[in-house]
Design a protein that fits this description.
The protein is an alpha+beta fold and 588 residues long. 45% of the residues lie in helices and 21% in strands. A hairpin with a 2-residue loop joins strand 4 and strand 5.
Length: 588
């Protein structure tokens, strides 16, 4: 072997040795930095988890200290994952995706610390909910107006974090996976909360008249006669607001609206397919369409044609929610009856109908309840935190909805619980079950439906089976024991004391209708498309104390994520519908 050849081999070994040493050094360096990032992210997650309690306690100093601690942890994690060696290591197969996830989460945390958490903590005391409230019928809007720019910037940062998290590679190395998962578990719910705060800060001042007077139609939905969004609009009111001061301009009943020969607004093809043009002609049917904006705009148009009053928006709240508000306001004494949170549903949806036979007197009673409750809420004697707890419960149960006639405001409302009963499938796979009474009666007070959702995601094509058991507890002698007003005056061919119900089942976005049965048969049904959702609808008569069962099966087009959350929403009736989830076991 020549000297040149020996030198070449020697230098080759030297080169390989240097490469191994450098690789080992880089690996050790990256490992040490990963440990630093892991510890910092876990610490940041623990600190972030304390923010809700600290802010609720109203301790600015403790909140600021926590924000500083979170920022320090986030900066440490970002510094540990931003050097050239780390970025180079991200190209290593298998390991690289883990390092990328850690780096991106560290960048998210640091961005949130600077752009969101510290600024929000700085103004938290100024928008302390406990400080807000009605004073002599007026709600001070100044704190929300002042906070709006800061909240908007913070929300932008949180939504950036959500977008990044959704695209993150799934970490598989235990060293870092736990820290990444823990921080994202804390941040995602926080992003939802900040988004809601941003909507409120942007919407409420203008909607409550900060920029000029506003007028709204308030619809009180009667759950005893079901519609998709809870019930028919019964009692209601025209509300005026200006600079946070709220007043009632006029009280309404369904009799104040003219029945139109044609729809007062263009209805969507899906609404026409399922409900014909009735939602655009009768105020009682405006709460049937699945798009709340469609029904609300029809109600506003019907009001203007009937009374000449134009409104800036529509607020719909159901009777059951009034009971929640009474938890905050306390009982209301009407002399012959004391209305409280425990008896409100029974009195307003059952007892009043049995004891007050004259419809005009009944309307007057409902109007009096609406006025007294409104006066109690705006009196300044009820703390806003208690009211917000009641409102939050109503929102959670899909009993409160809002539509704005101002496009820029409606755009902010869209995609939220305020806007629709069936949210987009962004954070969950959703199914809807909705009821509409066709009897013209008040017998849905006795409705007792049960819904089961069975999900099988084990195969290449996932399926979802929805079983709806519609049962009522109507008295056997309802035809003679209940007033005509409750039984519907015999307005339809349905026998007195029985109900004619329209049941609509809506599948997840992008899923297709696979099969259905009604009481083990396959009668004719209606179907329609709501955007990319398939809806199936049927109608049936139920005798007093009777029941029926509808089964609908949907199929997905591709395998779904087994970790994805499922959600089933249904028409809010007098009492909550019992819902059961069953997930197929994929073992074996």
């Amino acid at each position: 072997m020549t000297t040149t050849a020996r030198r070449r081999i020697l230098w080759t070994f030297v080169g390989v040795g240097i490469f191994i040493l450098l690789t080992a050094a880089a690996a050790l360096w990256t490992l040490s930095r990963a440990q630093i990032a892991r510890d910092s992210l876990e610490s940041a997650a623990e600190v972030a988890a304390t923010f809700p309690a600290l802010l609720e306690a109203g301790d600015p100093a403790a909140s600021a200290a926590a924000a500083d601690a979170f920022a320090a942890d986030a900066r440490t994690a970002r510094d540990a994952t931003s050097d050239p060696v780390w970025r180079l290591a991200e190209f290593v197969p298998w390991l690289g995706s883990n390092l990328t996830a850690v780096r991106e989460v560290s960048e998210i945390a640091d961005d949130l610390a600077v752009s969101a958490i510290s600024p929000l903590v700085a103004i938290a005391d100024d928008i302390d909910i406990a400080r807000l409230g009605f004073t002599e019928g007026r709600l001070d809007l100044t704190p929300l107006v002042d906070a709006a720019p800061v909240v908007e910037k913070a929300n932008d940062a949180f939504q950036r974090s959500v977008d990044t998290v959704r695209d993150l590679p799934e970490p598989t190395v235990p060293l870092v996976a736990g820290a990444v998962d823990r921080l994202t578990e804390v941040l995602l719910p926080a992003a939802t909360a900040v988004d809601a705060l941003d909507r409120a800060a942007a919407l409420f001042p203008a909607m409550l008249g900060a920029d000029g007077p506003r007028t709204y139609l308030l619809l009180m939905l009667n759950n005893a006669e079901a519609r998709t969004y809870g019930g028919i609009p019964g009692a209601g009111a025209v509300i005026t607001v200006e600079d946070g001061r709220v007043g009632i301009e006029r009280q309404l009943s369904s009799g104040d609206y003219v029945i139109e020969k044609e729809s007062v607004i263009p209805l969507s093809p899906s609404t026409i397919a399922l409900f014909a043009d009735l939602p655009g002609r009768y105020i009682q049917n405006t709460m049937s369409p699945l798009p709340f904006a469609e029904g609300a705009s029809a109600a506003a148009a019907l009001l203007e044609r009937s009374t000449g009053i134009a409104v800036d928006g529509v607020i719909a709240i159901d009777t059951t929610s009034l009971g929640y508000l009474l938890e905050a306001t306390g009982p209301l004494d009407f002399g012959s009856v004391v209305l409280d949170s425990g008896n409100a549903v029974d009195i307003l949806l059952s007892v009043a109908y049995r004891e007050i036979q004259e419809p005009t007197v009944l309307d007057a009673f409902f109007s009096a309840v609406t006025l007294r409750l409104f006066e109690s809420v705006t009196s300044g004697q009820v703390g806003l935190p208690n009211l917000l707890t009641s409102v939050e419960r109503a929102l959670d149960e899909h009993r409160l909805h809002v539509w704005s006639a101002h496009p820029e405001e409606q755009e902010r409302i869209e995609g939220s619980e305020l806007e629709t009963i069936l949210l987009p499938d962004d954070d969950a796979t959703r199914v809807g079950v909705f009821f509409n009474d066709l009897t013209g009666a008040k017998l849905d007070y006795y409705a007792d439906p049960n819904v089961t959702l069975e999900v099988d995601e084990c195969g290449a094509t996932p399926t979802a089976r929805v079983t709806v058991n519609w049962t009522n507890t109507i008295p056997a002698d309802a035809a003679t024991s209940l007033p005509s007003y409750v039984n519907g005056f015999g307005l339809t061919d349905t026998p007195i004391g029985e109900t004619l119900t329209r049941l609509t089942v809506v599948g997840p976005q992008g899923w297709t209708l696979q099969d259905y049965s009604f009481d083990d048969a396959r009668p004719g049904v209606q179907s329609a498309q709501y955007d990319d959702r398939t809806a199936l609808q049927t109608e049936f008569v139920t005798t007093a104390g009777g029941s029926h069962t509808l089964v609908v099966e949907f199929a997905g087009t591709v395998a779904s994520d087994p970790e994805r959350v499922w959600d089933l929403v249904s028409t809010p009736l007098a009492r909550s519908t019992n819902v059961e989830f069953i997930s197929a076991s994929c073992d074996g």
